[in-house]
C-alpha cells in the first residue's frame, strides 16, 4: 500500500515563526514571508530543554521553602510559604483558593518536571514506545503551562483584599520571585522541546537534526 510522501522527502519545512510551509530547495536559509531562520528541527532542542528544566528545578526548592508574602493584621505580622498559605486558606474555609494555589504552585510544576524528564529520556534513548501517547503528553504540558501563573494572580488578589481593609497590610517576600522564575523556565523548557523528535526515524538522522541546521 502506497503512502503519501513526507515533508522531509519533499524538502518542505514549517517556519517556526509564522507557520509558512517553505520549500528548502528554494529558500534554504530564511522564510520568504517573515525572514526567520529555517530549520527542520529546533536547534539544540534537547540540550536547551535540559538546561531550562534543571534551572527551573533549582529555583523550585527556594520557591517552596522561602516565604512568598508577609501578612500583617492588627499589627501582628507573619511570613507565609506556599504550603503554609495553602493550609491557612484551607483552615479558614477558603478551600477553593487553597486548591488553586496547591495545583498551580506544587502540582503543576511537579507534573511538568516528570513529563519533560520522561520525554527527554525516551527521545535520547531513541525509544519508539508509545509515540502517540507521548505526543499527547507534550501537548498536555503545553496546555497546563498557560495556567502556571494562577497562584501569582491569587497572591495579588489576596494582597488587594487585605489592603482593602484599613487594619491590614501585605508585602511580597523572596519566594514569589523564585516561583516566578520557576514558571518562566518551565515554559521555556516546554517551548524548547521539539515534539517531532518523539517520532524516531533513524538514530543518526535524529541526532543530527537536533543539533544542526539542514
Largest beta-sheet details: 3 strands, antiparallel
Proper CATH architecture of the largest domain: Up-down Bundle
Number of structural units classed as domains: 2
Catalogue the unreliable spans.
202-214
- Count of helical stretches: 7
- Strand-residue fraction? 5-15%
Radius of gyration: 22 Å
The H/E string reads EEHEEHHHHEHH
CATH topology of the largest domain: Butyryl-CoA Dehydrogenase, subunit A, domain 3
Tally of strands: 5
Mean pLDDT: 80
Question: Which helices and strands occur, and which strands form pairs?
Answer:
Blueprint: E1 12-14, E2 21-23, H1 45-65, E3 69-73, E4 76-80, H2 82-91, H3 95-124, H4 131-145, H5 150-164, E5 168-172, H6 174-192, H7 203-211
Structural overview:
Helices cover 56% and strands 10% of the residues. It is mainly α and 214 residues long. It folds into 2 domains: 1-38; 41-211, Up-down Bundle (Butyryl-CoA Dehydrogenase, subunit A, domain 3), CATH 1.20.140. α3 packs antiparallel against α5 (150-164). The chain is elongated, with a radius of gyration of 22 Å.
Amino acid at each position: 500500500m502506497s503512502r503519501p510522501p513526507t515533508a522531509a522527502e519533499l524538502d518542505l519545512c514549517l517556519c517556526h515563526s509564522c507557520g509558512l510551509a517553505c520549500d528548502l530547495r528554494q529558500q534554504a536559509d530564511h522564510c520568504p514571508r517573515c525572514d526567520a531562520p529555517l530549520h527542520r528541527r529546533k536547534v539544540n532542542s534537547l540540550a536547551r530543554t535540559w538546561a531550562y528544566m534543571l534551572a527551573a528545578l533549582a529555583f523550585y526548592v527556594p520557591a517552596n521553602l522561602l516565604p512568598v508574602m508577609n501578612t500583617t493584621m492588627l499589627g501582628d505580622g507573619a511570613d507565609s510559604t506556599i504550603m503554609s498559605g495553602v493550609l491557612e486558606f484551607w483552615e479558614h474555609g477558603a478551600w477553593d483558593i487553597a486548591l488553586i494555589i496547591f495545583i498551580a504552585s506544587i502540582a503543576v510544576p511537579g507534573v511538568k518536571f516528570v513529563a519533560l524528564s520522561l520525554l527527554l529520556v525516551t527521545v535520547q534513548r531513541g525509544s519508539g514506545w508509545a509515540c502517540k501517547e507521548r505526543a499527547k503528553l507534550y501537548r498536555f504540558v503545553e496546555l497546563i503551562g498557560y495556567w502556571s501563573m494562577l497562584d501569582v494572580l491569587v497572591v495579588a488578589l489576596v494582597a488587594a483584599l487585605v489592603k482593602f481593609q484599613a487594619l491590614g497590610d501585605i508585602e511580597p517576600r523572596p519566594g514569589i520571585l523564585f516561583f516566578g522564575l520557576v514558571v518562566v523556565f518551565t515554559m521555556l523548557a516546554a517551548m524548547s522541546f521539539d515534539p517531532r523528535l518523539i517520532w524516531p526515524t533513524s538514530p543518526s538522522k535524529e541526532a543530527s537534526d537536533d543539533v544542526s541546521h539542514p
